[in-house]
Amino acid sequence: MLRFQHTEYLWAFALLIVLALAFVWVSWWKRRSIRRIGDPGMVEKLFSGYSRKLFTLKFILIFLAFFFGVIGLANLQKGSRVEKITRKGVDVIIALDVSKSMLATDAKPDRLTRAKQLITKLMEQMDNDRIGMVVFAGNAYLQMPLTVDYSAARMFLGSITPDLIPRQGTEIGEAIRVSDEAFNKKERKHKALIIISDGEDHQAGASAEAKKALENGVVIYTVGIGSPTGSPLPDPETGGLKKDNEGNTVISKLNEEELKKIASTGKGMYLHLLNNTDEVVEALSDRIDKMEQKEFGENVFTDYNSYFQYFLGICLVLLVLEFFIPEGTTRKSNANNLPGIQKAEAA
What is the domain range of residue 114? Predict the structure, then answer.
């Protein structure tokens, strides 16, 4: 199994696009400047050995060095040893709302980011439990089945964005159904579902699905994120605030009543998340720890071989090569290459 130990560095790949655009712009600017001076073929001969090919080669070396450097910093690893880990805990599935309303900023920096921070801290308190993830908006999908591999769980969490589910909405009922199916149907206990959402459910049936899940032994906890007074939604297309068809600013409000009703039906607990992440984590951890636990085993990678040194080595070699490659060719005399001067000398 391959993985990146430090996935946060992978965002630096976006800078490769910036680097490529900068190269295109500089190349265009140089060509335009040459054309303004005069005939491109004649003008380039005035430069001290200028070479477009060498300039392009130097850029390619820098581009590749940056690419391998990012992989090295993220530390690509491969699992080297598999062990069967036996633990005592419960099965916990986290259903995370990824609808566009989760981009509201009443929870800083936005609801979705705050929810992911909550999940990260919660996983730090759940070393002996199996964890799975469901993402939902207008549909619901099992993002990660139940596992004790928390490194993989963090990697999956980092990749979650609203773009995962194109169909918008907040189908909490569908999220409960998908989560219930991800648990072991033969068991009637040791199962907890944590729903993190702003509660803007546009479909009925969430309470009915919560009742079915409870019959299968699933205790449901709900975490409402945002404020009841609401917050406007950013519009990525315009860079401003999202408007409805009548031109009014769209306000997304936390629907606590819906989430409280689901938690009550699921014999769990409702918690409000805004700027109190640690308090919510403590409350959830306390409830989960008090649940009846079971023993389970799972084969997981316990040792990983790191390969960062190879990628950083390639990066260093490419940078050294780029340093020693000149941007132009060496010529004894630029003036002697001009046709007019050659004719004068011949005369």
Answer: 84-298
